[in-house]
Write a structure and sequence with these properties.
Elements: H1 5-23, H2 26-33, H3 37-44, H4 47-71, H5 75-84, H6 100-105, H7 113-139, H8 149-166, H9 173-189
Helix pairs in contact: 1-2, 1-4, 3-4, 4-5, 4-7, 5-9, 7-8, 8-9
Domain HTH tetR-type: 2-62
Organism: Alteromonas gilva
DNA-binding region: 25-44
């Protein structure tokens, strides 16, 4: 079967998400994309090029969602819903509970410089998205105007990463929900 470029990127993203950048071999990619190496190299250059395309698509998806949260009538409620959804993935989708960016960062020392740079850029994009939500929440009176948006965004990003990582280690949805509630209660009390 011949997949479009977008479908190929999405299928490769799943493999990278499941196995990490370092743990994914070209045979894994070939199997997922049902393409010969020559077709993959012609389209993406190499494994790094394909990963960067997947990372870009993943990051843009989260940034788009954060932008939608910032434009919602209740930005914090929208953000909480967004942060909760990956925590509830089924057993078969456990890999999706963790952030693809964080999963890849775990192999930091083994990553090519281009991917390290792209990961930093992705994290900065996410932080900007969290900051937009904080600013919108301040404008709507959900958060104190005295809160520093940059610091709150960095804190939220850290909580996002921590929750996504914890979600791979537990299936206890009630504990994860309690932690998420605490994150938002703490934020609103600042």
């Amino acid at each position: 079967m011949s997949y479009s470029r977008q479908e190929s990127v999405e299928r490769a993203m799943t493999v990278f998400w499941q196995k990490g950048y370092v743990g994914t071999g070209m045979r894994d990619i070939q199997a997922a994309l049902d393409k010969r190496p020559g077709s993959i190299y012609a389209t993406f250059g190499n494994k790094e090029g394909l990963y960067l395309a997947a990372l870009t698509a993943y990051t843009q998806s989260i940034v788009d969602t954060l932008q939608a949260c910032s434009q919602a009538d209740n930005p914090l409620r929208a953000l909480k819903t967004f942060m909760r959804s990956p925590l509830l993935k089924s057993e078969a989708e456990t890999y999706m509970r963790q952030c693809l960016i964080v999963k890849t960062q775990a192999d930091w020392l083994e990553l090519p410089a281009g991917i390290q740079t792209s990961l930093r850029d992705a994290l900065n994009s996410l932080r900007s998205g969290f900051e937009a939500v904080v600013l919108a929440a301040q404008q709507r009176g959900e958060l104190s105007a005295e809160m520093t948006p940059e610091q709150a965004a960095l804190w939220l990003q850290g909580q996002f990463i921590a929750l996504r990582t914890l979600a791979t280690a537990t299936d206890d949805a009630s504990t994860l929900a309690w932690i998420l509630d605490k994150v938002f209660n703490d934020l609103q009390r600042q």
